[in-house]
Protein: Cysteine desulfurase
Amino acid sequence: MANSIYLDNQATTPLDPAVLEVMLPFLTSKFGNPHSASHAYGWETEAAIDVARAQVSSLIKAQEPNEIYFTSGATEANNLAIKGTMQAYGRERPHMVTVNTEHKCVLETMRYCESMGFSLTVVPVNAKGLVEIDSLEKAITNKTAIVSVMAVQNEIGTIQDIKTIATLAHSKGALFHTDAAQGFGKIPLDVQDMTIDLMSISGHKIYGPKGVGALYVKKGVRLVSQIHGGTQEDGLRAGTQAPALCAGLGMAASLAETSMITEHTRIRHLQETLLNALINLYPPLVVNGSLDERWVGNLNISFPGINGDRLIANLRAIALSSGSACSSGSATGSFVLKALDLPKELISSSLRLGIGRFTTEEDIQIAIEHFKSALEKLGKL
Structure:
């Protein structure tokens, strides 16, 4: 919508024009099947996928590009990481550990595995949305196959201490997996330094296309394939690869690698401008989750004393959300905010504002004016 201010960058991000430019040839003239090994049409699309694999690998500092496996998105990558691990290692190590603020595709995949006979421990977070290391340590045993903790929480933006958690998992002989859909390309992620075994990646969260993601699998880690029917992706994920989508993800990763630091500084400024203005307009405002250990583009806030639905109804000119896009429509309220043990009043009046690459200073100022108008209409100013 041309007249709408877009502040929902956690749900999805607009496609970067540079990404589209790279993708277009593979939607038109370069249409070959990358698995056609006998002619140039196949060779050029296979080469493009190799370039994309290297670009994704470079951003997360993987040891080699072949540790990157393309998927349809982070949800598939999470399923492959968790189910694949349990099928490969679960006989000797039938236990899984995760955190209660994980994305539903992690929680539900682990619960599916639990229904198949494996055991699961879900560790709570504290009031800031961070998992306590002592609690996690108690949960992991010598029968734990996998520990899965999200790098950046999708609703409240909290950044977990991934390196420490990975070290803890390894001390008990478990693999460490992180759903990095919201962290990939936004915060520094070095899989070798952080000793990450498995990392799930999404394209449309970093100005790339929807329908593509990747799973980083550390060399030597065994997974059982979840999609059968071909030898693609080194036999781990059957199905014809989509060169346009892979090329788009690769370019998005490359752009993120060169702009991450400057973007972080610029977006932090916009976040501070917006938050300070909203606090001045409505001093009772509460920030949900840690403000320090947080991706700066995520601002989850509550307006105590205001009906959240009525507030959103008066902010139609701003694209925002009241929680995860994947949980949109839920009548029970955010399970993530409930996990922070927030009172019902704060949960029901919460909004998530997502600032991104294409958000401007002007957008923020216009958004502030819309909030001012909405609060006036509700009799709160």
